[in-house]
Amino acid sequence: MLQHITKNLIRKYTLDIGTFYFYDHFLISEVNEGEFLNFDKATKLFLTAKEHYGNNIPFVYITNRINSYSFEPTAHFKSTKLFPNLRGYGIVTYDSINNKIASLERSFLDVPTKIFDNLEEAILWVDELILQD
Predict the structure, then answer these.
(1) Neighbours of 129 (CB within 10 A)
(2) Helices (H), strands (E): how many in the chain?
(3) For residue 71, what are the CA distances in angstroms to 7, 12, 20, 48, 67?
(4) Phi and psi at residue 38, in whole multiples of 5°?
């Protein structure tokens, strides 16, 4: 995690599926190596996000893909419906294979989605999306 980001950190959660960093208007996920992520496994994360953002505080979900894991992309259809205040989905990848997977993943999302090669750019994008509200 980047040092200059942590000063605005609200809370860090270590769940069975990974580590999640909550900020005022975004959260950063770092899913565990080798995890298979689906809707049911992410339930605790969804409840935690509801606790922080409710249905009214706009936020962006950033997945920081520092580990290799698999996921069920159709779960996005269910999960995005839980959050009417979700303004965007950022995907940070560090190699060409994950970049291709992220490109495919975008087709399963109905919120603005962007792929980045570093976390700093993804966080700057949050401001663009939130300031549009």
Answers:
(1) 21
(2) 4, 8
(3) 31, 22, 16, 19, 12
(4) -135, 180
Q: Is-contact 30 67, C-beta < 8 A?
A: yes
pTM equals 0.91
Burial of 76 (0-12, 13-18, 19+ CB in 10 A): buried
End-to-end CA distance of the chain: 28
pLDDT score of 133: 64
Contact 123, 87 (CB under 8 A): no
| Cα torsion 91, 93, 96, 97: sign | negative
Which range (44-53, 69-78, 90-99) has the least confidence? 69-78
> What is the rounded CA–CA span in Å between residue 99 and residue 93?
6
Question: Rounded to whole angstroms, how far apart are CA atoms 31 and 37?
Answer: 8
Q: H or E segment at 37? A: strand 36-37
